[in-house]
Amino acid sequence: MKRLRALFCGAATAALATAGLAAFSAQQASGASADATALSNRWYAAAPYLMPHDNNPPDAGAIMDATGLKAFQLAFVLAPNGGGCSPTWDGTSPVSSDTTVGSVISAIRAKGGDVSASIGGYGGTKLGQTCSDAASTAAAYQQVITKYQLKAIDFDLEEPEYENATAIAHEIGAAKLLQQNNPGLYVSVTTAGTADGTGWFGKQMLNEAKAQGFTPNNFSIMPFDGGFNGAAAQTSALTNFNTILQSTFGWDAATAYAHEGFSGMNGRSDTGEYFRQADFQTVLDYATSHHMDRFTFWSLNRDRQCTPADNNGQTSGTCSSVTQSAWDFAKYSVKFAGVTPPTTPPTTPPTSPPPGGNCSATTWNGAAVYTAGNTVSYGGHTWKAKWWTQNEKPGTTGEWGVWQDLGAC
User: Fold this and answer.
1) Could you check whether the bond before residue 308 is cis, i.e. omega within 30 degrees of 0?
2) Which end of the chain is more exposed for a tag (fewer CB within 10 A), N or C?
3) Global model pTM greater than 0.85
4) 159 is catalytic
């Protein structure tokens, strides 16, 4: 969700703008209501990112029909490229005069879905940098909430803004004001992930939130573009980030997980890491078993196969660079929201292996906590934990999983 934002953000296609304006005008002429009916917080927590202006925007309705997805995280609200304290899409399209994004939102809502707007992203000028204080920053974002009748909003605090303490104070202060002034607003705060959870600037952002007495629905990290490769590295970072949340806010582990989120990148990342469908399943299992608040990814614009499938080893803003069917990764968001996506033909759930056999080690228990070196028996094999785990079945995540197969009993 980082460099691709800057590398692949171009002007909206003329076809999208024309179609968007026509749809918006037709909706207005017909008198159809654009009122937002709030979804459950779980849906806003599962909303994948979608750029409605750039990176060959996919048809949101088609994704909804194919997967059962209901919520979309629209990106990104920025300051005008020429400066100022008024909201724009991608720094170029003023929210005040927008019709293209409005038509996308109306189409999604007409099918029973809804959207959240994401603020910031990697690169570009953020409103926290250009507005004079938290109140004026909040007033700019309130224009977005009011125009689109939003029930959810995401603060994506990354470079270069999160290196600017004043700008971050404006953003956190604005988030707190919006939370107070819009009862029930779902607020997520997303920042960079590292192997240790998050880096120095991420920790400073958390300290700013603590100092201002602000608690969003979740703080999410993005464990990619930082030496990650596969799910094991990501779940380890999420465990470490949980510890950071505990120490910063004085929460116990369960409370910290209830305020923690994951924001991944599907396929090939900007730095050449790979996160395939099996990795998403592993992180999803981790997120649900730890009762985390959010599971999302960058991006739906990339949730389709390139031609050739590996894109010649390059990262793209419009496809994943891995072998997949269209919208494979969106289905993990649907699962997180608690809805089973349609399948054609219907799939048969896998049969779990018997949890025992004639093994001497203690039988694996999904409710138990295991640490590095602990051994269990499962499916007629003995398994050794590589690191802390709970409710992760031995043998379900291959060589990158937490359990090392020591062989048949």
Assistant:
1) yes
2) C
3) no
4) no
